[in-house]
Design goal:
Two copies of one chain form a homodimer. By secondary structure, the first copy, chain A, is an alpha+beta fold. Chain A has seven helices and eleven strands. Chain A folds into two domains: 102 residues, Sandwich (Jelly Rolls); 63 residues, Winged helix-like DNA-binding domain superfamily/Winged helix DNA-binding domain (Arc Repressor Mutant, subunit A, Orthogonal Bundle), CATH 1.10.10.10. The first copy, chain A, is globular and about 55 Å long. The relative contact order of chain A is 0.13. Chain B binds a DNA duplex (30 and 30 nucleotides) through helix 7.
DNA sequence: CGTACTTTTGAATCGCATCAAATCTGGTGG
DNA sequence: CCACCAGATTTGATGCGATTCAAAAGTACG
């Protein structure tokens, strides 16, 4: 049994929970959990990609979250039912943890503190994302993305430009066009798997 | 000392923390806390309105959150520094709690569980908000808003249409126009301080 | 009664979505 | 090794919907 557990988890979880970790392989297209179902396991994505989606009353599906690493649905730890579906968009590996033991572990104040920290961080990330989505033009969105998600003005691509486009809420065509425009203006530089924002003085 | 404490807080907080609650009046325009400063107090808005804003590198200010009741910055409980400013947009009352005692209270597993629940709820709300902001046309955004934030297809206005417009990331002019269009189509009904979504079969 | 703000309508413009299609890419199997 | 396929990337043309700027009408408040 070659169970690889990321450092992050070893750091975060109490021994009792760590002992319950299991590896699970998932295929592209596989559904990890269903909306309305009772959460049994918490998923920690190690590789591959999964998304959270919800189908509205009118039958349209929208993506709530794209996850390429980390916990898939932190907010469901105490829920009686999932509020969305989880579907793998790229095959990969996940670590599963029984919800029950995670909940029990919350009585461990060392762990609960870390979990609060985890959730808080996600809230801040989501607020920033909402801020970005409120911006009117793609230029601003892209620059905002690089400034907030990148380091020193350099953003490393998590996947491809297509999913990046949907993350900032625009079509991929429009994103491509904006990128070439910004490049011509000398504001942006496309590197392999990276986007660099060049300093425009002031 | 007529310190009014909302039921929600009495329910949530341990006695030790409740004892430390103080009422604070704030005026429109007042700044409740500053970006970069160390959090000293947690604010619970009772009346009035406050917003979280952040000024980007380029000097533009954007609204991260509009708060008309409840905790103003739950995510900052464990932060060393605020990541945004809080400014009152309407005069009102707040309850302040010393951050320190709140943090200490997290060792109380009954409280930390509730706090985790609080944060989780906010995460789900934010995800739904992001989902809404990703919608392309105002029609969909408005309908999505009523469906997710309202009850039985009826949304009670939290403030005015202008701030509602900025919440869904559109100009108020466009929102007004969309509302009248939807009303003409018989999809929407404007009630005093309410918006009702009429059932379009299927 | 005046001031400030929201609500509402109008007109012009522009950016983005949309649809289409070509090119490029990596991966698969013959 | 090449043919092939699915998907990403890129460019083009068109139309719609939202922004923008302007201004009028309504409303709340001191």
């Amino acid at each position: 049994m070659d169970l690889y557990i990321p450092e992050l988890l070893k750091e975060l979880l109490p021994k009792e929970v760590l002992a319950q970790c299991r590896a699970q392989h998932f295929e592209k297209g596989e559904q990890l959990f269903h909306q309305g179902k009772k959460p049994e396991y918490m998923f920690f994505i190690v590789s591959g990609e999964a998304i959270l989606t919800r189908t509205s009353n009118h039958g349209e599906a929208t993506t709530l979250q794209r996850c390429k690493g980390g916990f898939l649905s932190e907010a469901s730890l105490l829920s009686d039912a999932y509020h969305c579906d989880a579907i793998a968009t790229q095959s990969g590996q996940a670590i599963t943890l029984p919800i029950k033991s995670l909940r029990d572990a919350l009585t461990d104040s060392k762990f609960s503190l870390k979990w609060v920290q985890l959730l808080s961080k996600e809230i801040m990330r989501l607020r920033t994302q909402s801020e970005r989505l409120s911006l009117k033009d793609i230029r601003s969105k892209l620059i905002h993305l690089i400034e907030t998600e990148g380091k020193q003005g350099v953003l490393t691509l998590q996947s491809d430009y297509k999913s990046m486009a949907s993350e900032i809420g625009v079509t991929h065509e429009a994103l491509y066009r904006t990128m070439t425009t910004l490049e011509k203006e000398g504001v942006l530089k496309k590197l392999p798997n990276c986007l660099e924002l060049l300093q425009t003085k002031k």
